[in-house]
Design brief:
By secondary structure, the chain is α/β, with parallel strands linked by helices. The protein is built from 19 helices and 19 strands. The longest helix has 17 residues. The protein is elongated.
């Protein structure tokens, strides 16, 4: 599947739903999915008319509907989008334009004055389109408005064929904080898979307030491309200084932030009169509807997650799988040679009931990214490690004996890791049954892979907190947390006995 396929499907399903909203002189403007895709197609056809097939096309500007239409027009055709940070000094922008081999540029009207210098110092650049709906008057033959490009596309008959999945779709430059910024090439398949792998969804028309810089991959994928995939209405925040005000204007359901933003909002919350009910404070601070914040880019202190939950807002952190297994890597480097992994899981097997503890004998991790993707570090382990016995057979036998000593129901089974954060659907659980899974959760398998890679012996145990979706009562997170807490004493006794047994004459 390509981004083009995802967008065309969204246009069919959500045609008249508002895709984008923004403020223009205090008036809320909007584009429906039909209008957005018509404009993106016009940009794409205009690029085809001007023979930019396979060329690198840069974008410099803050979030705007014209910016996103231009970007979609590029990546749904056969050109390569190069989003650049509009806040960089002119000399840095010129350097990146030259290094990226950009032959055309979409430029914000706010920095249109740079166009002359850019054309002088970027010899490969053939065209600049100013990101505004109105036509412009200029003496420069190489400068026009994006409106003129779209008119060319509307009047033209040619269009780009769909790109190949392995074609380069976009080049994202790194921040350059640790050296010269580098261009990271993402294929059409990369972009589409990134959208698909972000495992959250919402009802069509759900309001997403986009506050992060649009040239960042995090914002592009999570806010815009993912939002468009399920019919969200993405609202543009015109300035970080106006973020709180715009939350009151657009009333978002979902927001994407970095930790500093979360901390800033909490300062405002904590300054409120403590006698005012939190529900009223939340309505004033968040616009009345905010339920979900996704954060990434740096670690967020759990303190803020707990505090925001008091106001009815759930915060979810995003980490790469390599980050998730860093504690395992550290333990391996410290000389840890065996590891006990535990989790709370949903029971799939008929043998498992809430309150049971399952000995993990094998696992399925195919539904989450492998922590071994990327360059192999030979000091950790071999490039292609054997996972035939990821859970140590000797320790499984010892575990059976300890279970019997404690009078616990002995059940061994295969554990499957899903991405979450949502619970699985009944159809997914039926699929997992067919695959041979006995319990399902959202952790553990990736940690076990990293440990096995480093030669660490692994034992794993699933505390069955509930029957999986479709096999029991409706799933409520609060009930599952309560059940997990009830099982903590049983798990503590088990682990104490296991550690003593494992240590008795073993490694």
């Amino acid at each position: 599947m390509l981004i083009r396929d995802i967008l065309e499907e969204s246009e069919k399903k959500f045609s008249e739903i508002k895709a984008v909203k923004w403020l223009k002189k205090k008036e809320i403007c909007d584009r429906s999915y039909r209008e957005l895709m018509e404009n993106a197609k016009s940009v794409r056809k205009g690029l085809c008319e001007e023979s930019f097939q396979g060329k690198h096309i840069a974008l410099i500007g803050s979030s705007s509907v014209e910016w996103i239409e231009a970007y979609l027009g590029i990546i749904t055709g056969q050109a390569v989008a190069v989003p650049l940070d509009a806040g960089l000094p002119a000399e840095d922008l010129i350097d990146l334009l030259n290094r990226s081999d950009a032959e055309a540029l979409f430029l914000s009207p706010k920095i249109q004055t740079l166009s002359e210098r850019i054309l002088e110092e970027c010899p490969k650049l053939k065209k600049i389109w100013i990101l505004q709906e109105e036509n412009i008057e200029t003496n420069q033959k190489k400068v026009a408005s994006v409106a003129e490009l779209m008119t060319s596309g509307i009047n033209g008959t040619d269009d780009f064929a769909a790109p190949d999945p392995e074609d380069i779709a976009t080049i994202i430059f790194t921040s350059g904080t640790t050296g010269k910024s580098k261009g990271v090439m993402l294929t059409q398949r990369n972009l589409a898979e990134n959208v698909k792998s972000v495992n959250y969804t919402a009802d069509p028309g759900t309001i997403v307030l986009s506050v992060l810089p649009i040239h960042h991959a995090f914002c592009l994928v999570m806010d815009w491309l993912k939002g468009f995939s399920f019919g969200a209405t993405v609202c543009i925040n015109d300035s970080l200084l106006h973020m709180v005000k715009n939350m009151g204007v657009f009333h978002p359901d979902i927001m994407l932030m970095v930790p500093l933003m979360v901390e800033t909002i909490y300062k405002r919350l904590s300054a409120m009169n403590p006698l005012i009910p939190k529900k009223i404070v939340a309505a004033k601070a968040f616009g009345g509807k905010l339920k979900t914040i996704f954060t990434g880019g740096a670690h967020l202190d759990p303190f803020y997650i707990e505090k925001f939950a008091e106001y009815g807002v759930n915060i979810y952190e995003g980490y790469s799988m390599q980050d998730v297994v860093k504690p395992i890597r550290l333990m391996g480097l410290l000389g840890i040679r065996w590891l006990i992994l535990t989790n709370a899981a949903g029971g799939i097997s008929e043998e498992l009931a809430p309150g049971d503890i399952m000995i993990i004998s094998d696992q399925i991790s195919s539904f989450v990214p492998s922590p071994l993707i990327g360059r192999n570090i030979d000091e950790f382990g071999v490039r292609f490690p054997d996972m035939s016995h990821i859970y140590d057979k000797e320790k499984i036998q010892i575990s059976r004996e300890v279970f019997e000593q404690l009078g616990l129901h002995v059940v061994e089974g295969t554990y499957i890791q899903a991405t979450g954060p949502q619970y699985e659907t009944p159809a997914e659980i039926r699929m997992f049954q067919l695959l041979g899974a006995d319990a399902v959760g959202m952790s553990t398998a990736c940690e076990a892979i990293a440990a096995c890679h480093m030669g660490i012996r692994v034992s794993g145990f699933s505390a069955i907190s509930n029957k999986a979706a479709g096999l029991g009562a409706e799933l409520k997170h609060e009930d599952i947390l309560d059940r997990s807490k009830e099982m903590s004493d049983k798990m503590s006794r088990l682990l104490t006995e296991l550690i003593e047994s494992y240590s008795d004459g073993t490694e």
